[in-house]
Each structure stands twice: as structure tokens, then as C-alpha cells.
Specification:
The complex is a heterodimer of chains A (about 300) and B (about 250). Chain A is mainly alpha-helical. In chain A, helix 6 runs antiparallel to helix 7. The longest helix of chain A is centred in the middle third of the chain and has 30 residues. Chain B has about 250 residues and is an alpha+beta fold. Chain B starts with a helix and ends in a 10-residue tail after the last strand. Classes of the chains: A mainly alpha (about 300), B alpha+beta (about 250). At the A-B interface, helix 3, helix 8, strand 1 and helix 9 of A face helix 1, strand 3, strand 4, strand 5 and helix 5 of B. Strand 1 of chain A pairs antiparallel with strand 4 of chain B, so a sheet runs across the interface.
Chain lengths: ~300, ~250
């Protein structure tokens, strides 16, 4: 598949924001001490990231002014469900921020953080199911897709929570969240590596023989029927070289998981704030590269019909 | 303002019946229902049957399809930079060429490819707006261009690559089986067929109701080993293909 930058940006921004909200919700539910103002500032960061993600998702649409129609088919379409849950989650985080800012959280108690955790989990599930429900894109049609979206979002969000906490001098928050962020980053790496391994070994169900019904062991396409490009030759091919693909695969594991994990270890042992900040900065391109590989690695069966120009 | 409210109410009314129930829901609503429900068995299914034995790969079906569908009320099928270095355009139908076997025993197969109007179309339930739908009355899979938001998700959900985004209108387009032609009473009866079928000089494209066992298409499928593409995904394509077979030499 051709990775659309709008979707890479949307899923990574929103995923990290969801993880951040979950980190803040868990911290407030478990009574981790936070300096005054930290929670509302961090929630504001999450809200800004979510809104930026929502904006990026609009860039994917051909007809942006009709976007509201996407809420209609929630009975059958995971995309429709996502389109409903995302603004609801944004609203929920906004409400929590407002309650925090107005000092009303005492009365609301555990309700808003709990709802925020549920909302984040539901949103990850909806986003991942958009891909996992397409049975013939075999790289995606697997529970690992859901595990990856959730774990990577959680890990990057927890890390961002630590970085924000060190900058605000919330050392108790760092001490509580830091180790969790490190463990989650390593877990996310492991599960993502597992899906890379699985995808590399897939024997695709569709072949040129099943696509054309021509039962000859030697079958090649001589012409795709046009010399010019088409939607089919753009949307479903990433166009990157094998070397670029391998570099991206290595690069996202290095930038997205390995280096941030090392920096987090450093941050935990040294009590400096800069390793946390660096970890976030290093991880950001790694997350984008991870999503790029997620799309580029998916082989759409329609590509069987578009192999040779002449 | 009122328009979108109406759409919202209508979609809720249409989608009431859960999939797989055999009891008819509200006869009144059912009679006026345009869309097939998920998993619904239709009485009629229009489709093409493509005879690979006689297709000569002339692309007449491609050009006639483009001509008819670029001239309709839905607006042109855009060609971008048609005279530029890197032209691209929207087509509903392509003729591809394959070679089977190894030299010198090779066979060239011309293979027309368009939307297969699946009986269980995976592109329809994923559409977030309901712009993509399957018609209850004849099984044609259509896109309502006025409702499509151009998210491209339906194209991802089609294993055959049958859908193409129109770059100018930014909505998803696909073969309509010339729905604006086959029911047009202003046309002579013999012209009420898809443009590709009318254009084919060798008669490689048959058109009809595959649910009617006595139709030309049903007979051709039955008698000449008609098959579906990518049966592994259980989309039940309505369009089928007739395989090539050895033609005995003519005696003069």
C-alpha cells in the first residue's frame, strides 16, 4: 500500500495523545502526587495533539466538507465508528481538562479518568480494526495489528507523560511512570517485531492464477492494459526500493524503540530531564517510520493485476 | 441544513434490519428500499460474463466504456495531464494481457477487467457514509457521488482493484453496468445493454441476469465452465469468466 502521510500523522499523533491521557488517568486514579497545574497542562498537550491528528485525518479526504457523513454507517463500518469515537474522546479529554482547570475534579472523583481510559482503548480498537477487518490484506488482518496500535500508542504516550513531568518538576510522576514507559516500550518493540516476522513469512492466498482463473503454472502479465498511470498504480504501491524498505524497518526499530529505551534507562538512573526530552524527539520520526512500514509492507491482492506496463 | 437531517433519518430507517434475518421488516419500508441489506439474497443479479476464448484484446470495450461514462450526467471521468509527460485517467474497464506456458507452447490471453458486482461486496459495508451500496432490485454495486467523501477506504476493501478515485471530482468511481443506459426507454431495446457489451466486435461480453437459470449468461456459465475471480475471498463475484478451450480446426 502507498502510505498516505495524512494517515501516518493522524494515527501517530492520536495514538501518542491517547497514551498520554491513559498515563495521566492512571496516575490520578492511583494517587500519584503531581504538582499543581501539571495535570491540566498535560491534558492540554494531549488535546492539542488530538486536534492536530483530527486535522491531519481531514487531509486524507477528497471531499472535506462532507466529512460529517462518515458518522452514518456505524453499524457496519469501523471507519465510521472511529469517526464517532475520536471527537467523543476529544470532548471527554476537553471536559476533563475543563474540570481540572475549574477545580471540579474533587467532586467528579474517578469518573473522568476512568472514562478517558475506556475511550482511549475503544479508539485504539476502532482505528486498528479499520485495517484488521480487511481480510484479504493479510499483513493487517490479524490481532497483532490491534496489539501494535494499542501498545505503541501507550508506550509513546507514557514516554511523553514522563518528559512533560520532568519539565514540570513532577519527580514522583517520573518515578512512577518512567519504569512503566520503559517496559511498555520494550513490549511494544517485541510485539511489533513479532508482526514484522509474521508478515515477512506470509504466503499470500491470492496468486496470479486465482486472480485470473488461468490455471497454468507459468503465467505472466504482459500488459496491465495501459501505459499511463492510474489510481490503481498509485494508491496500492509504495514505490520505494527494497533497500529503502529495509532501512525503514531497521530505522523505526532503532528510533522508535531501541534509542528511546536506552535514553529512558539513562533518565531513570541519572534523574536528568534531558534524556526524557531527547527520547521523545528521537521517537517521533521512529513512530512515523513505523506506520510507514505498516502501510508499505501490506501487499494488496489488486497489485497482481498491475505488474507490467507494456 | 434540512438535507443532512433527512439523510441521517433515512439511513437509520434503512439499516434497521439485522443481517441474516429472514422475516421481512415493515413491508412499507421494504417496498421502497433501494439498497440491499448485508447478506440479503436478491432475486435478480445483473452481471457480465466474459468469454476469454474469443476476446482479441482490441480495447473497444475500454474506449466505449470511457465514452459513455464520461458523457453522462454524473460528470466526466477526469483525465489529468492527458497531453503531458505523465498522463493519468479514470477508467471503469481495462483489458489486460497475460501469457501462459513457456516458449514455444505459449498462449496469449486477453483479460478484460471491471467491477465484478459481487453478491457479497466487501467494499460496501466498510463505506463510512453509505455512499457505496448494492441495489436491491438488480444487484448492481454503485457509488452515490453526492455522498462520497473520497476517503478511498472502499478501494482498499476491494481485492480486485475495481474502484478508481476520480482525481478531479475527488470521489470514488466504478463500473455502473451502465445503469443509466440499460433501463433507458428512449433507447431502442437492443441498445439497452452496457456500452462495453455493445462495442465488443467478437461478442466476448455477455450481459444478463445470473439468477435467471434460463438467461444467456446463466447458460453460458453452466455449459462452458464459467468461473469467478479470487474465489478464496468468498466475495461471490456476479461477473464470471469463460475459460479458453481448444477450438477444433475448421473443415472446408
Amino acid at each position: 500500500m502507498h502510505p498516505a502521510f495524512s494517515i501516518l500523522l493522524f494515527t501517530t499523533l492520536s495514538g501518542t495523545a491517547q497514551g498520554l491521557v491513559v498515563a495521566l488517568a492512571l496516575a490520578s486514579l492511583l494517587g500519584v502526587p503531581m504538582p499543581p497545574g501539571f495535570l491540566s497542562h498535560a491534558l492540554l498537550v494531549a488535546e492539542v495533539l488530538l486536534l492536530a491528528g483530527l486535522g491531519a485525518s481531514f487531509l486524507h479526504l477528497g471531499r472535506k466538507s462532507r466529512a460529517w457523513r462518515a458518522v452514518l454507517m456505524w453499524r457496519t463500518s469501523w471507519m465510521s465508528r472511529e469517526v464517532i469515537v475520536l471527537p467523543a474522546f476529544i470532548g471527554l479529554v476537553g471536559l476533563w481538562w475543563l474540570a481540572e482547570w475549574a477545580g471540579a475534579t474533587e467532586r467528579l472523583g474517578f469518573l473522568l479518568p476512568l472514562l478517558a481510559i475506556v475511550g482511549a482503548l475503544v479508539l485504539w480498537y476502532c482505528t486498528a480494526m479499520i485495517y484488521a477487518c480487511l481480510r484479504f490484506i493479510e499483513e493487517w488482518a490479524h490481532p497483532l495489528t490491534i496489539a501494535n496500535f494499542t501498545l505503541i500508542g501507550l508506550a509513546s504516550g507514557m514516554l511523553l507523560a514522563c518528559a512533560l513531568a520532568t519539565l514540570s518538576g513532577a519527580s514522583a510522576m517520573v518515578a512512577a511512570t518512567g519504569p512503566v514507559a520503559l517496559v511498555l516500550t520494550l513490549a511494544a518493540w517485541m510485539v511489533r517485531a513479532l508482526s514484522l516476522h509474521r508478515n515477512a513469512g506470509i504466503r499470500h492466498k491470492s496468486t496470479l492464477q486465482s486472480a485470473t482463473g488461468i490455471q497454468s503454472p507459468q503465467l505472466v502479465q504482459k500488459s496491465m492494459g495501459m501505459s499511463a498511470g492510474a489510481f490503481n498504480t498509485r494508491e496500492f504501491f509504495h514505490g520505494a526500493s527494497l533497500a529503502a524498505m529495509q532501512n525503514a524497518r531497521l530505522g523505526f526499530q532503532l528510533l522508535g524503540f531501541a534509542l528511546p529505551a536506552l535514553l529512558m534507562l539513562w533518565g531513570l538512573s541519572s534523574h536528568h530531564s534531558w534524556p526524557w526530552v531527547w527520547a521523545v524527539l528521537v521517537q517521533a520520526p521512529g513512530l512515523i517510520a513505523e506506520r510507514w512500514v505498516f502501510f508499505a509492507q501490506a501487499k494488496h491482492p489488486q497489485n497482481l493485476y498491475y505488474q507490467v506496463v507494456s | 441544513m434540512i438535507g443532512w437531517l433527512k439523510d441521517l433519518l433515512q439511513t437509520n430507517a434503512v439499516a434497521q434490519a439485522p443481517a441474516g434475518t429472514s422475516t421481512p421488516v415493515q413491508p412499507m419500508a421494504d417496498a421502497t428500499r433501494v439498497r440491499a441489506l448485508p447478506g440479503e439474497t436478491l432475486a435478480k443479479q445483473l452481471a457480465l460474463v466474459i468469454d476469454l476464448n474469443v476476446c482479441v484484446g482490441c480495447h473497444a470495450c475500454v474506449t466505449s466504456c470511457k465514452q459513455w461514462n464520461t458523457s453522462g450526467s454524473a460528470g466526466p471521468l477526469a483525465d489529468m495531464a492527458p497531453y503531458g509527460a505523465d498522463p493519468t485517467g479514470t477508467f471503469f474497464n481495462r483489458v489486460q494481457t497475460y501469457e501462459a506456458g513457456s516458449f514455444p507452447n505459449t498462449e496469449t490471453i486477453h483479460f478484460p477487467k471491471s467491477c465484478l458486482h459481487c453478491e457479497d461486496p466487501p467494499c460496501v459495508p466498510v463505506c463510512p457514509t453509505g455512499a457505496s451500496y448494492k441495489r436491491k432490485e438488480d444487484g448492481i454495486v454503485l457509488v452515490d457521488y453526492d455522498k462520497c467523501i473520497g476517503c478511498k477506504y472502499c478501494a482498499w476493501a476491494c481485492p480486485y482493484g475495481a474502484r478508481e478515485l476520480d482525481e478531479e471530482r475527488q470521489v470514488m468511481t466504478k463500473c455502473t453496468l451502465c445503469v443509466d443506459r440499460i433501463y433507458d426507454e428512449h433507447l431502442p431495446k437492443e441498445d439497452r445493454k452496457p456500452a462495453c457489451v455493445k462495442a465488443c466486435p467478437t461478442g466476448a461480453r455477455l450481459f444478463g441476469d445470473v439468477k435467471d437459470p434460463e438467461s444467456e449468461v446463466s447458460k453460458a456459465i453452466r455449459e462452458r465452465g464459467g468461473y469467478a475471480l479470487m474465489p478464496e475471498w468468498e466475495t461471490q463475484p456476479a461477473n464470471q469468466y469463460l475459460p479458453r478451450h481448444k477450438t477444433p480446426p475448421a473443415k472446408h
